[in-house]
Structures are given as structure tokens and as C-alpha cells.
Amino acid sequence: MLLVPLSFLVALFLAVFLVRLLGEGRESWRRNSLFLALLSLYVVQSLLVGLRWGYGVMAVLPALPVMASLVPALSFLAFRDLTREEPGLSVRDWPHLLPTAATLMLLLIGRAPVDLVIIANFLGYGLGLLWLARLGPDGLIAARLDGSLRSFRALMLTGIALIASALTDVVISLDMLWSGGRYSPMVVSAATTLILLLLGISAVTAGQEEAGEGADATVDQASALEPRAMSDRDRPSAVPMDAANTSASVPASSTPTRTATEDHRQIATALDDLMREKRLWADPDLNLARLARRLGLPARAVSEAVNRVHGISVSHYVNNHRITEACRLLGDTDMPVTRILFEAGFMTKSNFNREFLRVTGESPSDWRRAQNLGLAKTC
User: Fold this and answer.
1) Is 310 helix (H, G, I), strand (E, B) or coil?
2) What is the DSSP letter of 336?
3) Dihedrals φ, ψ of 287, to 5°?
4) Rounded to whole angstroms, how far apart are CA atoms 48 and 66?
5) How far apart are the first and last CA of the chain?
6) Residue 119 in contact with residue 166, Cβ under 8 Å?
7) Which has more confidence, 135 or 215?
8) What's the whole-model pTM score?
9) pLDDT digits (tens, 9 = 90+) for 250-285
10) Which of 33, 48, 169, 274 sits most deeply, having the most CB atoms within 10 A of its CB?
């Protein structure tokens, strides 16, 4: 029977989602170009790993460390774009090519030090991604507020996966030193495929969220597989909102994270007015950067004001407005749920259902049924 390496299945799995993202059109390509490049890199890397460790094709061996050296920097740059108002690459990003250049140079003069460069590469960028994550979901100011939590989790997963890959290389190096590499083929094949899968899932999740697709299928289909770097949990209770007011402002939490100053309250009030008058929550592509520009303030100031005054993240703040509108439409119209989620400003059914459950404790269908019986809770 023909042997099909697990890494080939990973490549096929990721290629399916790559094709789906490519099918979103040129606008999606422009917004997600780095994530598309990442997925393409993971697909090719998985195929090469399968050829090397599944079929013993030695000709691909020199390409593995070179391609692996591209993974950390490209991962960092892709997620960094979600933290900036002006995404994209510039000439100032040239230092991110240094790890790959160093890898190529060392391969030409001798392979021994390459593993150390790759370990440092993956470890450094893994820590860099975790540093980007320090501000939480609100730090991803360019991410759509509809899916910023998923993008944040993808960011965290990528950082952890890069660090795990670096540690895997350390284990392999120790195995080469102590047992002559007796267990290295098995460790390389399994660890590389698993880490590539995790990195791919992260890229797919973030890319789909920014393209307006749900990422549930990606998460649900992931079970086990392999890259080697080569050598707010949601708040349990929601802030109640007046369902009779389409754009009701979000009341302050009874337990804000830190004391709000007068400046924070002024910013929060201005944001409440803007949301009520302009219905900004209806824009499915709304992000923190856009909100900040409308207020003429830094994104960090807006985020901090919402956190301190309302005790919730900006994504929850905006989604609370959206759920209020969804409740109004569910109660006052016969509009189908699949249309209501778009009218309320959501882009995916999965995100809508998750946020509706967070706010009301029920699914949209159950809430509408209870509303018809006069038993529905207030949104």
C-alpha cells in the first residue's frame, strides 16, 4: 500500500483553506497578502517535510532550513499588520531578511551552526509575537472587531508554536549529541508536522476573520498532525442593554478594571454619542483604528477609556450594540436570523452566535421563541 506521509495530509488541509481565501477576491488578497504568503509557505514546507522524512528524498534537505528561516519573520510581520493603522511592508523591514540571509550563508560555508541560528530565529520571533499580544485583543487595532478575539488567539497560538519549535530543535540537538540521532527522524517528522499544522491553523483563522469568513471549520477539523522550525476569556456575564433602543449606549460595569478619570469618561461619552448617532456598529469592517480616527484620538486612548469606564474590551463594547440591534430585529420583525446577523454588523454566523450567547445566555432562535411567548430576557 502506498505510504502517504502525515505532512502531505497537512499540506492538503492547508491548501484547501488557501484556495478558499484566494477565492475571496482581490480586495481580500490585498488585505491578507502576508497571511496568504504564510499559508503558501506552510503548504510547500509540509510537502518538503513529507518528501524528506516520508520517502527519504535527500535532495530537498538544503531547502528545508532556508524555508524554515522565513516562517518566523513572515508570521511576525503578518500579525504585526493587525496592530498598526498603516499595514504593509516597507524598506525599513529589511532586517527581517537577515535570519534567512544568515541561514543561506552558513549553509554555504558549513551546516553545523545553522541549527543555532534557526533556534534563535524561532525563539526570538515567538517571544516577539507574545510581546505584540501583551495589550490583548484591543491591541489588534486593524482587526475587525467582529473577529478580533479569534485573531488574538491565533496570534498567541503562533507565538507559542514558534517557541515550541525552537525547543524541539534543542531536543533534537541533544539527541544528536547523546544518542547519535537515534530518535531524531521520528521527533523531526512528528514535531514538524504538528507545529506546521498549528501555524497553518493560526494563519487560516486570522486570514478568514479579516476576509469575513468563519474559522470554525478550521478549528473543528484540526485534530493531530505536524512543522518543525527545522533546524478576556469572554466575560461570563454580559452587560445588559436596552433592547428598545437600537443604539443604546453601553452602561458602565460595576467593577471596572481600574479607576476611570474624567478624560476617560469624556472619551467614553463621545464614543457613545458617535455610536448612537452614526450607527458605526453597523459597519462589519469596523475596527479600533477607524473608531479612533473618527474621534481624532490615539487608538490606545479609546481602548483604555472603554476598558476603564465600561469594564469591557472594545470588541465587546461594539458587539453589545450589535446584539441590541439584533434583539430588536428578532423581536419586531420576521426577518430570518441569517439576514439579521448582517444587518446588525456581523460578518459570520459563528461570531454572531457566540456574541449573542454571551449577551443573552441564549441562541438567537431560542431568544426569538421566548420573545414570542413573552419570556425573553432583555438584551
Assistant:
1) helix
2) -
3) -135, 175
4) 12
5) 58
6) yes
7) 135
8) 0.77
9) 333 334 446 889 999 999 999 999 999 999 999 998
10) 169
Q: What's the one-letter identity of residue 153?
A: R
Chain position carrying cell 476617560: 264
Helix 184-211 and helix 63-80, axial crossing angle in degrees, nearest 10: 30
Backbone torsion region of residue 376, taken as left when φ is above 0, otherwise alpha when ψ lies between -120 and 50, otherwise beta: beta
Q: pLDDT tens-digit profile of 306-344?
A: 999 999 999 999 999 999 999 999 999 999 999 999 999
Query: Quick one: cell of 95?
Result: 532586517
- Give the per-residue SS3 of 24-73: CCHHHHHHCHHHHHHHHHHHHHHHHHHHHHHHCCHHHCCHHHHHHHHHHH
Cell of 101: 540571509
Compute the C-alpha angle 159/119/113, nearest 5°: 165
Of the listed ranges 8-17, 67-76, 260-269, the least confidently predicted one is 8-17
Count of C-beta atoms within a 10 Å radius of residue 120: 15
Q: Say how far apart CA 345 and CA 351 lie, in whole Å.
A: 11
Across-strand partners of 287?
144
